[in-house]
Amino acid sequence: MNESALLSNYLLIGGLLFALGAAGFVVRRNMIVIFLCCEMMLQGVSITLIGFGRFHNFDWGGQMLVIFIIAIAACEAAIALAMILMLFQKSGTLDMTFWQDLREPGRPAFRDDRLPEESVEDRVWPSLTPAGVEPAEDLEEQLHRSRV
């Protein structure tokens, strides 16, 4: 396989991992998922660094940075586990909004506005013509109206 094509594959996979991790980090509120998304972003960067190291005639700089990233990820996982256990022990939930009690004085509390529930009467479901029953309108008339 051509080296530039191999590099583009490494960069594509690394970029996809990083983008998925960043999207999950921004969207989710569960602490475990947030830290897993952070790990996914680090792995995307690691794959990118390894791809660049291979592209530049097996330069060991990228591989050494990946080893440091793995060490940092292990430390982050230990700290995250301690924080998650502490939060769960204190609150009984893993929702990040519980930590708003730790905010600076004078800062407003986070409000999560829930969407109102939709009542059953408000829903309008489409219905199909029962099998074996002729529709009220002719198909040719429907086609003629859609063309006009």
Describe the 3D structure.
It is a single chain. The protein has helices at 3-27, 31-55, 60-91, 139-147. The termini are far apart. The chain is built from four helices and no strands. The chain has 148 residues and is mainly alpha-helical. The model has no long low-confidence stretch (mean pLDDT 81). Helix content is 61%, strand content 0%. The protein has a domain at 12-96: Helix Hairpins, CATH 1.10.287. Helix 2 packs antiparallel against helix 3 (60-91). The longest helix is centred in the middle third of the chain and has 32 residues, at 60-91.
> What is the arithmetic mean of pLDDT?
81
Please state the overall shape, judged from the principal axes of the Cα atoms: flat
CATH topology of the domain at 12-96: Helix Hairpins
DSSP, total strands: 0
Unreliable runs: none
Q: How big a fraction of the residues is strand?
A: under 5%
Order of helices and strands: HHHH
CATH class of the domain at 12-96, please? Mainly Alpha
Largest sheet: none
Radius of gyration, whole Å: 27 Å
The separation of the N and C termini measures 55 Å
Helix content: 55-70%
Counted by DSSP, the helix tally is 4
Which structural class should the secondary elements be placed in? mainly alpha
CATH hierarchy: architecture of the domain at 12-96: Orthogonal Bundle
